[in-house]
Amino acid sequence: MQSKRLLIIALSIISLATACGAEGDAESTRTTAPASEAANDADGDADKSATPDDSGSQATAPETDAEPSASEIDVDAVLAADLNSCEAVPSGETLRIGYAADFSELGGFVDIPGSAAAEYFVELLNCRGGVDGRPVELIVRDIEGNPETAGRVAQELLDDKVSAILGPAFFDVNQAILQVTAGKTPLISVSSTEPLLADPAQLSLLASFTDTAQAKAAARFAIEQGWQTSATFSVPGPYFGYLVEVFTEEYEALGGRILDDYPFVPAQTTDFSAQVNQIAALEPQPDVIYSALIAFQAAILRGQLDEAGVGSEMLLADAFSATGGYFTDGVEGFFHTSHTFPEPDGRMLKFLDSYEQVKGSALESDSYSALAADAILVIAAAVIETGSLDPGEVGRAMIAGTGIDGLTGVLRYNGGGTPNTPVYVHEVVDGGPNLAAVYEVNE
Questions:
Q1: What's the whole-model pTM score?
Q2: Alpha-carbon distance 198 to 175, whole Å?
């Protein structure tokens, strides 16, 4: 499927090469009101894995084993909140959270649904009494995909006395924000997987696993499937190149063999015939193709491999789902790493279903919407833990977090900048995700 919308999304992923991996019509500023107004608005190295056993049973998500603590919120109660019947308006000092969101064609595929999800989650929090007796206010401003604008927005959010900032996907704009926050106000990127952004010294965190983790998990998964030979597609540099570098190192350490690596241009290469001819001539042919290819390009490659009689499996990174993988033809049987799995009775689907029922439209991104809610939970837990709205105290408590039970899993920072959440491997089955494996990767 190569609609205009998917093409725009695909083009936006080019910037992952200098952003997530090295890293809409929307108002430029939005503020989510506390509970009373929200209620009125509502009216109108891989260590552990779970894989399919010999009987063919489906992998299961890891059990939540974190003990409830004073810094935790009753997430299930929040998700069940009825905006038409809220608790009394919290009377404490307002917790202000900023969202430096990118609504441009570069980042809108993440931050448009992400900011909508964040605003709705704040409404639910306020309906259940806020955070530690404090109303929560979310201030959303558009950085327009521009580092200079991102720096200006960061300063505006600091002037608004926010306790923490939710950050966009890409490395360069996050860096511009960090130059302004100067290690004094925490920044948690909703969707970036760039390892360099996980910097406790700058109070900079990720809400998800890193590219290192997902590449290692992919290598482990490939070996466990018995895929002993692989061909890769990469681009020198971050994300598209870095993922393949980590995969190759881990895959070979586990006994796999990389037959060759092939170049491509993200979002632009639409004919892989030269690479496919070379793959078809390999002896043996690769058991699996690994890459961070975006969805429509991966589908084209698969079709040309089929025409050449090459039956290699397809194993991709999280760009697959971020670029409309499940709305793309020709991807049945593909495998890819992901941030969570939509368990039928899980929190993510409850949140998404609640949003659609209340707002009358669906959020376009499952995992990134859930990550936005989790980022807010990390901030909320730190405020409860410290009893403070001081950005420095909140940021240090976020870094020290040992078990925030969220929508995508249990986020454990333990003094670092990444939450050590599991890496999920999905298989496309009948056009939807099927859980193939789950990995906990300690970096």
A1: 0.83
A2: 11
